[in-house]
Amino acid sequence: MNIIIIKYNAGNIRSVDNALHRLGYEAEITADPEKISKADKVIFPGVGEASSTMSYLRETGLDNVVRGLKQPVLGICLGMQLMCSYSEEGQVDCLNIFDEKVRKFQLPEPNLQNIKIPHMGWNKIYDLKSDLFDPSLEGEFVYFVHSFYVAQGPDVAATTDYILPYSSALQKDNFFATQFHPEKSGPVGERILTNFLKL
Question: What CATH class does 3-197 carry?
Fold first, then answer.
């Protein structure tokens, strides 16, 4: 299987590659549009800031490459947020694969539970609606690090509660995305990555 991890100016790419190695898969990390377009599976991970990253994607033409992909594509964390229509992080228009806006978490008033931003650590996914998840994953815990979230809309594929219920995964056609980090989510994350690679 030809697996491509898109190389761009966002961190965390190597940890995704390492997770695939643990599962017995080899991936190529590249920004080559032809290789990306011909891949069997494409992973679009990322940790970083939305507006500067979108500027880089537009400058390199990778924005149009990602939008035009027909094979299964998995966006992770910032990758998921960049696949939405707009982000409040830098007030930037994004790839518009999912017609959803990315919003900044707002602390509740009064903050009686001492909730902190970013949302960091393990939390539960539920109400799963995608081939990314098998039924046994309902209610399992995965690992998050994020200050911005995607509200629940027609493309929601999993829900998580932090301050409010939000979309912890999305799916539309061949595009899949997770706000959490499957590559850092232990055996549960490995099952989700395996489900994606078997699509």
Answer: alpha beta
